Amino acid sequence: MQNDQLQSSLYQRAALPAGPASITSDDKGTNVFRVYCPNPKCRCLLLRENLGTVVKRTPKYALPRLVASEASDEDNDGEVETEYFEVRDMMQFENIGFTKTLNGAVKFLTCADCDLGPLGFQEVGANAYTGCFLHASRVRYLVPAPATATTAETPAAAAQE
User: Fold this and answer.
1) Residue 118, preceding bond cis, omega within 30 degrees?
2) What are the pLDDT tens digits along the chain (161 aa)?
3) How far is CA 86 from CA 13, 82, 92, 112, 133, in A?
């Protein structure tokens, strides 16, 4: 039963209200939900709450199309995407994979369990920033289910007692 509840509470970003405000805290600009692999068959936790700061960024390298899977129906032929979770230290990730360095300048982030990706990138090189950028619309979020009132908590039930 708990497994079904966890799976039903994992949503793709498209299921959340539009814009960064739906996935970030107002005061810190960090992710308010746990971040998971976008593959519906994978339950890999990538990043815990409040560890990624939402940033708008135009990367030097466009993210290639996601590996063919049921994870995404979007048509993303290597477009430049801009809304990312900036993770300053790679050790803050719970579970993430990195590709080999491409063209001596960039590594792509993948799911460490199922290898789905790219989910983001890290620039490498002598003058490169050492943080990682996880694309906000290429992941799923653990959104707590809304609290439902039990019969003991409803006013009618309290009046009957």
Assistant:
1) yes
2) 444 444 444 444 434 544 445 777 767 889 988 999 999 899 999 999 999 998 888 777 778 887 654 444 454 445 554 789 999 999 999 999 999 999 889 999 999 999 999 999 999 988 888 899 999 889 998 777 766 655 444 444 444 44
3) 17, 11, 11, 18, 5
